[in-house]
Amino acid sequence: MEFRYLGNSGLKISEITYGNWLTHGSQVENEQAHACVKASLEAGITTFDTADVYANTKAETVLGEALKGERRESLEIFTKVFGPIGPKGHNDLGLSRKHIMEAAHGSLSRLQTDYIDLYQAHRYDYETPLEETMQAFADLVRAGKVLYVGVSEWTADQLRDGAALAKELGFQLISNQPQYSMLWRVIEGEVVPASKELGISQVVWSPIAQGVLTGKYVPGQELPEGSRATDDKGGANMIARWMKDDVLERVQQLKPIADEAGLSMAALAIAWVLQNDNVATAIIGASRPEQVFDNVAAAGVTLEPALLAKIDDVLGDAVVSDPAKTLESSPKTREV
Hints:
- By secondary structure, this protein is α/β, with parallel strands linked by helices.
- The chain has a single domain (3-328), classed as TIM Barrel, CATH 3.20.20.100.
- The protein has helices at residues 30-42, 58-67, 97-111, 130-142, 156-168, 191-198, 235-239, 245-252, 255-261, 265-274, 289-295, 305-315; strands at 3-5, 12-14, 16-19, 47-49, 76-81, 116-121, 146-151, 173-176, 201-204, 279-284.
- Helix 3 packs parallel to helix 4 (130-142).
């Protein structure tokens, strides 16, 4: 495992992060989830990402139990706040001071820790003044309950506004967590350049495009049993945009490129996002320990320019790169 600094800070994190979105407390039984966390630790992963909204707080509970007994100082635990949790009442979501404070204390309890290494605004909240949100984060930092602050799926302008307020309040934004993969490159045009100016790193999710870039979905063939594409709890909806024959056929053509690199297709996809020098870490998910060991093979890999060019040629216009797509990530109004 190799390590990278997170933003303009002294915090080092593993360049592969284990995340439990759509798995812990939902798709994967607790025993299997614990096995995946153990495999991550064995593979050298020290950074773990979750969110209170995952499985309506259950994912945090499972991760807290799985990490119990590990040396806390040797771990970097990330979580997020924004989405509706609990009974999903009118103040059970968003980035108001009330919800941030209540959510932070809930996360600390479920994760069985005294502090959160990186607390992230899971989306941008259009209904709460940004000043209120950033003040709440500042107070959590000063109280020692949060060490660093990040965001997720914010636009370049939102990052600039948030970073300016953070600076006024005596802390800094050091990370953004966007979707990023060979197929989904919308951050490259605006978010990455702004982040470099501001001292913000990317903590990227879905580097294998919800499993599509593993090559397991073959045009004209039955969907693999138990795969993300067959999950009626949300996974199938997330992967639907890639389940088109043209995209799947192009992905199949990546197999010889992965072979040339000496990597599985999943590891190739993860190594690809890590070639971006603004990416601090790639978040992987797993339902089986062997998936973890396969994915961490991407750590420390350098892909030559000629190989990267081959990937671009194969994927062609299947790649989504419109920067405006980031603006669509955050809801313009709260759900309740």
